[in-house]
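OP here, attaching both records as promised.
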Amino acid sequence: MSCKKEQRRDSELVGVVIADSYDARFAPLLSTIGPWARDFLLLSNPATFTSATLQSQIAAFRRVHHFISDTVVRRDIMYSGIALCSLNISAQFSDNFDFQHLDDVIRDILVNEEILLQSIHVEVLSSFEAAFCVSDYDSLLLASKLIMERWFFPMVPDRMASARCLGLSALSRNVYVSVSEQDFGKLVPVGNVSKRAFNSTFGVCCEVDGSAFIACSTIGSYTNIGSNTFVLNCIIGENCIIGADCRLEESILGSNVRIPNGTSLSKQSVVSSEVVYPPDLDVPLNSAICAKPPCEYYEDFIEDKVLKGIYIWTLTDGGSFWNSSERRDSRNGSTGEEDGMETSTESEEFDQVESDATSHFYEEVVESMERIQGLTFSDQQMHNLILEINSSKLAYNISMEDVAKYVFFAFLGLPGNETWTKLKELCQKWILLFKNYYKPRKSQIQLLLAIEDRFKRSSVKFRPLVARLVHFLYNDMDILEEESILEWVESLDEKWFELYEHHSLLSHRARVYSNRLGFTASHTCHDLYIKEHLFLDQKQQKAAVVIQRCWRAHKARVDLAQMFRNSFDITGRPTTKETLNLQITRMNVFYHHPDDDCRLVELCSAALGLFRIHKKDEISIAPQRRMVFYKCLFTYLSRSGKDSNFVMPIRYKCFITTKFFTDNKFVIVFRFLETFIHPQDCVFLAKAGYFDCILSLITKLVPDHQLLTPLMTETRPSPRIESLCEMLMLPILQTTLQERVLVLRYLMRSICINKVVVVMVEVVIPYFSRCLCNAVISPMEVLNAFGDHPSLETLPSGLMSTYFLSVLLDVYDKYDINDDEKSLLLSTCASYKHAMEQVHENECITFGKEVKSFIMTAMNTVFESHTFLALCKHGVLFPTDVNVWSLVIFEKQILNSEAVLLLATSYPCMNRLWHLLVNLESQSPTGCIANHINLLKMGHPLDDESRDKLTQALSLFCGCLVFTISSIDDADFVSGHPNLVFSGEKLTEIITVIRDVGLGLIDLAFPDDFFVTAKTANERNRSASKV
């Protein structure tokens, strides 16, 4: 952020007193102080010069001046945690609930200093000495990092020793490795240390993978860390095993902890010793993970629950294990939300306000705002909030300036206001509140002071929002006035701007710290931070330059489009190929507005006339010109309405299609297609949305009264709509082989996803069916376009695609297709029907009641027709796995038709069906692959898809058996009949398996307590009726 512009300062105020020594009136003044005292004493009463000697006034002035000159304010020191006190102070802690912390003692001494005759002396250590106090996990991590960075010299890691460690060996990258008694004297310590370790300490015999990243951490002895593991700012105990691909950041782990592979611990995690961390564990905030429950001593303020074999400890007051200040605030009953980067809470920020009434008022405002925020937003809620705030103001006698300040301060502390998006959204919703309280300029200044206090107390996260919030309140919401902002800025001192820049630098340092691989040395890191900060400032300046350049480029593009638009109008209607290409290029540049539609229509008309004049000459348009013309044309057609002039842009295409099937015009039409619609453009046309544009034109041209009539698929549309339908086939007719299948797939996909279902069913699909009957396209090309099953690459699953396939099924009866094509057709119908049943409830297209009834009736008629039964008989004669499963999909249609006789008496088909049925497998609850029938025997449930597949196949198989057995007499059944495909022993085995499956399904449907519960319910109903 750029520094604040230096303000002009006035010169220091100098008072000059000229006294005449010969005048008797100045004798008291001249006799009291000398002429060169350089002190200016202001007297409000002129008579004081003659009536008093000014001794009392001068003495009071001297005391105030002495207090101000002897007071020193320091902001560069930190509390060391060392306090020495007398025995009287320590005795006051016993049985005194007011004295719980050191701050309580200091506050009591300052208030009662003159009564208790107690004083406080502060000793500031020299710059060569360092002291630090560890009070919680956060300060423990900071102390560990400061020791490794050698801030407490001579207490540094390489000078420390213990019973099991004779010292630490210092390596490069500020890494320290413990040396045991056996390894003492060796140049290289035992154990593997990752080359990606920085500013860390390792215990004895640690095994760390070379790909693991370790920074600012302490690792205990005999600890193993897997590959690709990220450990940052952590303390890990002894004999721990950290798996591969783990992520640990700002965490404390005890000894003998096991972390599985791929685990990511949340920040500020506390894991006690002997914990085997389960995979996929969802740990709540402000909790600790332990291997044992808490002892009885902690039952009053610690709760625990068992989750996956471990105990989750949480404080009863909702505090955090990580910061001691948060726990102290929670025990004192403070309210407010925790700030992730700071240890103070919102209520703690207002604990030191001057009045208890103001504190109570602020708490009630926060409570009211949080309650209103949880309700559904309405203007009435805002009026209720204003009434509650006014009531609290009158109850506690709060001034309007304090109301304006604390209301906005409470608003900034609401949950969710940490991000700019949610803060902006809430400001827009609560504008009635701001309009009510911030009309006067004094209230606006108090609002800005609330922003300033919020920044000073929570500057890490709130710093990026200050400038944007003030600008938003001034420019967008019109809450602040310019004079108020200027007056507030003039009141800010240089220290505030230094603090703003300081926190900006600290925030940047934190980002650099999290992204760097490690530290090289502590004394060089500060220089790197400053360089990175300067680089960030330069980057922001370059970003501003880029934004300015983009705006200029946009302005230049607008000016260029207007210049081309004027040139287009000046040139007028093109009469040559070169002029046409030039006009097409200009059209692509400036065609971005509906006002240019008339120019596009004029260009299409000129192109049509030019092509008609040069029919015998080959006038070719460059591919790039064709592409840009297609884009402009599609944009125009897609946004045109019923009253738009879209006849001229498509007239040349209508001219092609209306004469395409005439023999005498074929050569001329072919040359015309080669001139403009090139075969290479067909795939591009399909991808660019050609079919969607033509289908939208068809839906716009269909009269509304035609949509209200009963669906009639045999009626032919009007000539104009017929010509548009013929235009759908143009790209398909100009392609071959794989390109034709791809273009066909784009066309059918556009038909299936079109939302005007009535037009697709009544006009487009029947025309497509007639083209297939007239051999314009081959049936195998259409079948290949459908694919084996619906997917993102083929056609979407649903009612529309299945109906499309069923309509085309009648056409295939007129063609002589081979056995492989019949099998492919049967499997395609089965896959689309099965997919339709799966997504039937979640259909993305809305069908009317009449349309849906018509489609379902038509599909059922087709699937019960002679053509489809012939396909089913083909599947019975060729019982491959694909054909048998296709027959299972259509089990209802087969059981209600004559095909059931052929299937029931076909040993190969029935044997294959039984073999597939008993070998169905899926994943069991234990994760192993198991047989469906075995799972049901053991009482394990099946997933929906597996259960549907098993029951459908079992229904078809049992239906065929019942049909065969019921058509045979008892004597023929015993002696054997040709229609019986299985022997008696095989039938016994089959019936036994079917019985076990049925019992398993019954056990899953009706648990053991079902009948007991049902009986109890019946008895209750009977007794209720008697009463």
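Record two, same layout:
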Amino acid sequence: MLSSYAFSDLLRISIFTGILVLLLSFAQRFLRRKQSTGTQLLGPPNPSFLFGHLRLLIKAPNGRGEIYEQWAKTYGPAYSVAGPLGSTRVVICDPRALAHYYSKETFTYVQSKFTKVLMANIFGRGLLYAEGESHRRQRKALSPAFSNASIRKLTHVFYDSVYKAKAHWDSIIQATPASDALIDVSEWMDHIALDSIGKAAFGHDFESLDGKSKSIAKDLHTLGTSSNGVVGQVIFILSAIFPSLLHLPTKQNLMIRRLRANMGRIADELLERNRQELDVTWVVMLLADFISVKAETNGGSLAMSREEILSQVFTLFRERGQNLNTNTIYRCMTQIVYATPGYATTSGSLTWALIELCRHPEVQQKLREELLQEAGNDPTFDQLSAGFPYLDAVAQEVLRLHPAVISTTRVAAEDDIIPFSRPIKIASGEQVFSLVVKKGDTITSPIDCVNTSDAFWGPNSKIFEPERWLDPNGLTGAKDLAGYRHILTFSDGPRMCLGRHFALTEFKAVLFVLIRNYSFELRDGPDTKIESLSSFARRPKIAGEKEPRVLMKFLLPLVLTSLLLVLVPFARRLLNGSRTNATKLLGPPNPSLIFGALPMILKAPGHASDLYNTWIQTYGPAFRVPGPMGSSRIMIFDPRAITHFYSKETFTYVQTKFTKIFVANIFGRGLLYAEGESHRRQRKALSPAFSNAAIRKLTHVFYDAAHKVKANWDSTLDGASGEAMIDVQAWMNHISLDSIGIAGFGHDFQSLDGQSSTVVDVFDSFASASDSLVGRILFLLSPVFPWLQHFPTRQNRLIKKMRATMERIGDEVLARNKAEFDGKPIAPEDKSIIGLLGECPPSLKRIKFSFRFPAKAELGGTSLAMTREEVVAQWALIELCRKPEKQQRLRDELLQAGSSDPTYDRLWSGLPYLDAVAHEILRLHPPVGQTTRVATEDDVIPFSEPVKTASGEEVTSIVVKKGDTVTVSIGYTNRSETFWGPNAKEFEPERWLDPEGLARAKDIQGHRHILTFSDGPRICLGRNFALVEFKAVLAVLIRSFSFELPHGPDTEIETHPAIFRRPKNAGEKEPRLILRVKRLE
């Protein structure tokens, strides 16, 4: 034991040694600064010789970003900041300087001794510790484990973890007497991140979500959220000068040691479990560690082949297990758990995301609406990556505002010159465009400052605004910045976070499940004060809480979320209606707050053409029509306005959310779903299959189907004295199904042969099914709440069944056409659309191969789309029955053409009255009655005649604001007396043969001056296909049979409300069209 004198001497020696170290350190810095020829910069005055500015920055209430930005405004894009004990560092905020700095990381700019010791203590001497060539080799070895292909296989792990959390939360909420519960989401996000990374990275379930691994989970959570005591903070600040201080037993350092011990025990288990068979990820990680060890042993060089390295790895593992021991595994585990895929980034970012969504309930609602549009299973990796634009925008905005690591500080390993994009003012008053950096200088990139700087992100840079990522001009200033998506959260250059895609996918998967199932509020409402706790990663906590907790209310979604979904959009519409500077238009009064005028329009006959005509007479060629829940849409009826509208489709005017879900549910996410450039590419790829040359080869298919019907009817008439009552609707359905099956995909459904199958049964049911009362109400509300289309109504169940059946047939089509996909020659006899696609020019091959999914997803959609053409055929027979003289005139023309079936060219242009009948039917009975789109940007629509506004002013153009809904009524335009004369509503094929018959209609664009096939970029690609099929079928039937309505020309015909309106005999419960059919001799 030491005597009191000896202890006193030892204490004096220790104090003297400490003072001597301080003086020598200060003298060294003073002399180096005097000798330095680096650029002398301006900077804020030093507030403390002992701590410099470091203490001020650590205690900043809103993070360091605002302080750094204020200094940048005062001293320019590069300035000097004081550190402890007279040290200094250079802070750079210029995009060109930052790009240069990050590009030279691990070689010119390396981690300081302080950072190296900190990394080694926490993460071991692995990837995060390495520099230069050693870092490059380790990163290369680890990269395959974080590729998209690897993450794609691991996505289910993220869902497993979040659903486990969801089950716990459901239990908590159900056990709470009130309708909500307070839950500390911060700790739960840590558990989700820990369990996900454990299973995904090295096959170990920490089971922290099940209440196990309490010590590790608690230590990781506390390590990420706690700060040291006063002594610990002083030691941490001085560690920047004396890195050895990081080995002192402070609170955090003791926690790190305990964490290492616990991780070590798990490492022992993993080592034993993996002795016989190593997981691929483990081989990559262990190989990276082995490379690091060997490279350091050989002085930084490694002259070994990949095969030799692998051989030695496995030899060492099997024979000794020395290099691949617990410490090796621990280093891999810690860098994977806490750093590489961003344990702190993921859990912290998820907590910040929920906070921001609580602060901005309208953003939470908008995100929920997007996520609820996805039906069925949880989204795949590819859907999470690119299928949810608003989710992606929320993720990027959270990462921008709340980076887990707020700065990057490095030491120059050699002299360097950093270029700047704008001049910097130096201490001498001179302005220069580059900064001389001397070996040993410290450089800092303030990540949180750059991510939220007004200079790059505009005046709303500090505000949570996900919309900036959806606006093409939203990132104008930030595009000068390097980094992932122009933010520095994942760093940049050689040290850019290797696990960024892992972290992003986990973030999106977790948020997808939580936002779809729960509504979130901060404990004390949107204005709850949140503090930023700076530790190893910046984490949030409620102000005043001793523990780093973020308490939120979780509301059961069944009732409360439904109310939100109703009230928030309604309130938003009221606010938007009062703020918008779009042209204020007149319009009919709102008959229903819930449904608007929609039921009135849907019930009106003839696609509401008479109703629209009344409104036009009252309000003019443009007016607003009230929709469900306070929404409205602009309706335009002027030819110049209509032309402008259609010309800007897929870019300025796109499908509404309601239409997108509707199209995706029925037709798949193909051509009909796509917008903009994607739509253009897909259309270009498909165009050869619908050319005149291609259809010419397929004409025989239409005749085959029509002659099958003729043969069946002949058999029926043979036993009925040449006359019978036949339900022509069912036969028209089967003609369309068999024709598109053979012509489109080389698959014969054989429905005309009486072949029963799931497809035929579902197709028949789907073509005529109408929904229940509940289904109709949901459909009426769907334009406002598109996700209602996912409810299992009768029609939606039929759609799902149809899609599943078509998927199976799609598999057969893909298998049979594999030769085409492999680039082999197409069989000469294969004249189907999918076969003809194989003959497209080489320049389109890449597009074609990326478009393989139509064989499966669009097979059902194309077949369903063809039901529109069979509806037109039914209306043709009805109109010819109402006008027997026109039926006879058509028959005379067809009989004069000869006994054989007309050729494609004859059908196209050699039978003028058949062509006139076809176009008159298409004019009077368009299967789709209107086109409704939403504006993606502000626009001005010109008119050919004045429009009277709500103020009484007359204008020749109207202003449409982004988000406005615009509708063109195809049914009205096709039947308008303004364009088609006083007999516009009459079946008069002769108008198409009279040179003056279309005089006013020529102002209308579209196919032959009708809008049945739409117009502009979305004009129906298969219109010629449909016309030739229609003419071929009508030619065979009219030449062979005469048709009459059951009770004469005045027989009442009703419209059956289905997805595509179809005719039926009045009084029939089922949508049947019974006609008297007579065989002609």
